[in-house]
Amino acid sequence: MARIGKKPIPLPNGVTVDIKKNDVTVKGPKGQLSRTFSPAISIDLDNGAVTVDRPTDQQHHKALHGLTRALINNMVVGVSEGFVRNLEIVGVGYRARMEGNDLVLNVGHSHAITFEGSDEISFEVDRTGRLIVVHGIDKEIVGETAARIRRTRPPEPYKGKGIRYSDEYVRRKAGKAGAK
Predict the structure, then answer these.
(1) Which of 46, 86, 97, 166 maximizes the CB count within 10 A of its CB?
(2) Whole-angstrom distance, CA of residue 116 vs CA of residue 148
(3) Are strands 31-36 and 23-28 parallel, antiparallel or unpaired?
(4) HSE, side-chain direction, 13 A CA sphere, residue 53
(5) Whether 117 and 50 share a structural domain
(6) pLDDT per position as a tens digit, 26-45
(7) Between helices 139-151 and 59-80, what is the axis angle to 10°?
(8) Are residues 59 and 87 in the same domain?
(9) Is the distance from CB of 49 to CB of 9 less than 8 angstroms?
(10) CA–centroid distance for 13 within its chain
């Protein structure tokens, strides 16, 4: 029984949804998002809430039902509140800084690594250069950008150096048995 798919999506103040067949456009105070969904799933707007229905109880329709509802909910949350992902830099000499809209990382490579800011993504770095905040309205793009930043220097298990998510736990390993 689908639990996620059956829940209606309430629309906050200032958010409008435009549904044309299987194209959904959500506009809000932070911006606008559009996405095309499967024609097998019906999407309706009733009394300030979006509802999603499936035609049958087949497995692929059940999967599309929950997925469609979750994606539309993420669009509504994104244009009303936005999404944030926090990253921490751990390591001697590892730093991040902003140059205009671009994020520049010095994390032990022979060169600085630059991530360009855009209309969809913005970065913020604290004054110590150890905390990076990724902002955006599209959850998928925010998560992918944060993962690309982390991939430049993932945390290693011996000293814990690298870039990690702020809520990530890095399991530490013991060093050599003979070292004292």
Answers:
(1) 86
(2) 12
(3) antiparallel
(4) 5
(5) no
(6) 999 999 999 999 999 999 99
(7) 90
(8) no
(9) yes
(10) 23
CA distance 100 to 28: 26
3-state helix, strand, coil in the chain (%, to 5): 20, 35, 45
Which CATH number characterizes residue 155's domain? Answer: 3.90.930.12
CB 71 within 8 A of CB 37: yes
Q: Which of 80, 108, 135 is the last residue of a domain?
A: 80
Can you tell me the mean pLDDT for 133-160?
Answer: 94
Residues 98 and 161 in one domain: yes
pLDDT given at position 1: 45
Indicate if 75 and 93 belong to the same structural domain. Answer: no
Among all chains, which residue has been given the structure tokens 């309430």? 10
Instruction: For residue 150, tell me if it sits in a domain.
Output: yes
Report how many helices (DSSP H) and strands (DSSP E) the chain contains, helices first.
2, 13
Is the Cα dihedral 137, 2, 18, 48 positive or negative? negative
DSSP 8-state secondary structure symbol assigned to residue 25: E
Range of the domain at 142: 83-165
Phi first, then psi: give them for residue 113, nearest 5 degrees: -105, 130
Q: What is the DSSP string of 138-164?
A: -HHHHHHHHHHHHHTSPPPTTT--EEE
Q: How many residues does the chain have?
A: 180
Q: How confident is residue 5, by pLDDT bands cut at 50, 70 and 90?
A: confident
